[in-house]
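Re: the pair you flagged

First of the two:
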Amino acid sequence: FFSKPEHLESGAFHHFVYLFLKIFFQFLGSYIVLFDSLFASMLQMASKVLPLGVTVSRSRDHTSQTRVSAKHTEFIGSKAFVRRITSNRTRFLVSKSRFEVRASEEAGTSATENVLDCVVVGGGLSGLCIGQVLNKKKIAKSFLVTESRERVGGNITTVSNDDYLWEEGPNSFQPSDAMLRMTTDVGLVDELALGDSKAPRFVWWEGRLRPTPDGLASLPTFDLLSIWGKIRAGLGAVGIKAGMPETEESVEQFIRRNLGEEVFMRLIEPFCSGVYAGDPSKLGMKAAFGKIHILEETGGSLVGGAIKLFQNKKNDPPRDADLPPKPPGATVASYKKGLKQLPEAIVAQIPDNIRVNWTLKEIAIQEPGLYSLTYQTPQGTEKVLTRCVVMTAPSYVVSSLVSSIAPGAATALEKIVYPPVAAVTIAYPLSSVKDDAPPLRSGTMEGFGQLHPRSQGITTLGTIYSSVLFPGRAPEPMLMLLNYIGGRKNQGIKEQTKEELVAQVDKDVRTMLIKADAPPPEVMGVRVWERAIPQFDVGHLDILDAARKSLDASGLDKVVLAGNYVAGVAIGKCVEGAYAKCDEIEKLLK
């Protein structure tokens, strides 16, 4: 275009070009201003795809960027920028965060013009929290959080009807400072629902529900452990035990060596089953319970390490002044309308950065430090360029995505096991509770819930007294119970019907808590998670290390591994992990 025609002098030609471009873009700019005002109001009514027309929205600096596409030439804004397109058709997509028109190629593939700072793959809680922190701390100027399903939030599944509100995934969280920070930043402080910090926990052992110790004062009197079991645990805790081995220990090996067989069989084994749905003979102590493992490493014993930990806390920075007071005791928390309020609140903070029904099909290295992501979306194939990728999808999904480019990482990540777990929510009249059941006191239920060791003949892993823990979630006088069944040692639940799962849970709770002649339970919901909880087995940290090294060696050094198989399976761990990963992302982008 700028090659000099032979019949024009150089100065005259360039002057002609300058005047032509100036007049043309001023003329075009006047229409851009008009279209901006017209289509801004239309955005509120527009669906995700406009059949014809131009989409307009505001960028971060509150300026408008308009892209008008033609068959062969695309003009962007009011700048003298001309780019050839080979497309014979143009598809217009609404993007509220910035104005974008994506031109389809012959094969129906579209390419995004801008390079994003970061793309978070996976819209579960980890991915959402990372997006929230990226936005809050202004770590990334441009980013997306993509989710293959039709909704975000991962396994958080709050359900309600006219009478009940229940959870079909995780049930609650520990109100750590990280959780309170996230809760504060998304405006949910007034929606916090705290459980009773003094609510007892129970373990089914030798035909009775027995309370677990809730502090030093209860240690002499609680009957879950024998006198010898308590003495053995006390001696081991202060360091009278076998030394640490050179090889990595399982949870079972660590607890038996430090605290004895009774503590393992009656407390830790049911805890591993209830929290991880796991097998403590396979779970790695360092990976699954690192904060306990490090006590012995640093202090020579659990008590010695706890003393050092307490001393070091004096050097911790003060809590943020805007955080709500830390709840007392070992309480748990949720939100008044259920856990779903957290992902909903995050979405309200970053609505323009979230894409659902976007399935990542391929990740490729465009050039060093720049990645091309190919998505299948409801509007067709989309390609996104980004400087950093954060993988919060399950490890088996990440394994398949990187298999062609980083086979070593794929091989490592596919080793992580996800056993199935079913959440079965049922309700009985309060009068159905056995008169001698320890949680029933003066006609009122008290307590958090109960765990069931695998050795005691109960199939259900654990039962949470949902309507007791968070009052108002069931009508009076009903008692709503959330039961978890399945896990590493009972993977056959995938072949059972929902009716069979309810029947098994009903049988178990009638053995322990509910009267044999009680009416059939009212069933709220049954949700089977075929791949529920990643197992932090012995060697888990080595798996993550091998995956990291393989990604780095394959040019995927700015692909960050995150999510619950990295940070931990609890909600609080996912949130803590999000803050930690955002620090890592910030360094990568710099």
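Second of the two:
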Amino acid sequence: RLTFKLLKSAFSLTMLIWWLPAALAVLLLQSAAVTETQAECPAEGCSEAALFVSEDEAEGTGLHLLQRRQWQQIQAEAAKEQLPPPFEDDETSTFDPTSFLFDGVDSHPPPLTPIVVPAHKKRSLNLHFNAVMASCNPRIGDPQKCTKVVTKSARSLFTQLHVKARVEEKIPPLSHEETTAFRHRFSELVVGGSKSVMMKSTKTEQYGGWKQLVIKGYDNMRPVVSKSMVEFINAGVGEYTAHWDDSFIKVSVAKGKSKLGLDITQEEEDAMRNETLKATETDMLEIDEEEQQKDVYSSTFDVREHWPNCKEVTGHVRYQTCNNCWSHATALVTESRLCIKTNGAFNGPNAWLSQSFIAACRMDGANYCRGGSGLLGFKTVTRWGVPTGGPDFRGNIQAGVQTCYPQILPNEANVHCPGACSPFSHYPRSLQQDTFYVQYNPRGLHPAGRQTPYLAKKAMVEDGPILLGMRIYQDFYAYKNGIYAPVKKSWNRYIGGHAVTGMGFGPGYVLAINSWSTAWGMEGAFKVAPQAIDFGYFIPGHMTQGHGLGAAAHLAMPLPRE
């Protein structure tokens, strides 16, 4: 018996010695595979989303070998890339993070095809949806369990979507902090939105809404500017310099969209084409052939310098807080032209016209925070006039200056065209006494028209600023100085339409004023390549004195002085 026990122990020891090297080899291979496919775990512990928590490494080191080869193939073809389609995102300019939940949903949307990431178990969108539906049923669901299940699904789906976006270069490399903030925004949106989706009456509507929540949620929560994007631009690929600020980590595409708001319908675009064709036959007769042979922007012109007695007004910079850039541009155009028209009489610290009045009294009757067309503001001012109104505190107005109807907070309820000055403003005269009635005969010109830049130049030289319409891409948010034109990269995606104020021109550029405060760009201004003004030129026409409804037919001059 003792001999048998000794033989058994010797056999076990032999087998252990035999299999130990093989086991160690397997462990080393698994460790190498994890190192190959997974980034370093964050301090709070490893998770599926840790795959792309850090993307500071070059050439997609954190990707699986097959995905890395796809990445290299995409990079090899980078020189052939063109700008992404300008209308690939069909959402409206006014963005509510959950608004897409109630869009028209395909009754049988196809399932999301998952990308398999090694060392992690993946589930399709269908399986995630079933788990969420079972846990978040409003009748029998447990709220705490619902939150836990949705959070887990959100993290898993974020990884799948993020791998796919990175391989296809729809998003640039992100740092640890950028990816963490991105994942957090996405998870918060999915957790909050899932409970609303599960309130829908049918499973088809629930699935369609949840699918849109996940896919559009990822697209809208991605960072509008990344540090790698700024570094790429500043490497010399464009004619402008980009600026990185740590605050960009918290700025999503959804938030970026709230700083836009120019909407051009197909009907309006057709009208612009017709107006442009008509201008070819008439307006070009006023421009001599010698001028037409020159480069349209060969000389330099700045409205602010050309009319120095109005520099205090033409130097205004506003800060928009919702999707009404068109009204901000209209206000600056109108107050600048009013100062020029009156030879500097409309001037001083309170010579600001009310952007909020223009937005609240808009001719189409829509909400004051919604987007609008390039001509809407001029038509509104012509119809109702406009009183004084200072900007948001981030605009460059002097502290303590009082105006009739200052800029109101975004997304306020029950905002209508006002019949009196703001009750929060200590202004010495009534709305009727303060309203400036001016008449415009505005026209929109299509950017493709050969004569369009000549007419835009002529309008600025003769009467002052005009309104410009641009398609905005992500890199525009990081602009600091130089001549802007969107960088041709697949991750530099179209965000929406934007209205700015054309204030001059020079060799190879048009000078414009944005409505994002003096902290952006060249103290609120920027130079843009003419080809980037691709939505249109909106010219108000010669300003004349108008007749207000029930008011005297004169401008509300002079302004009250404190």
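Residues 24-71, 77-95, 99-122, 548-553 have pLDDT under 50 and may be disordered.

-B.
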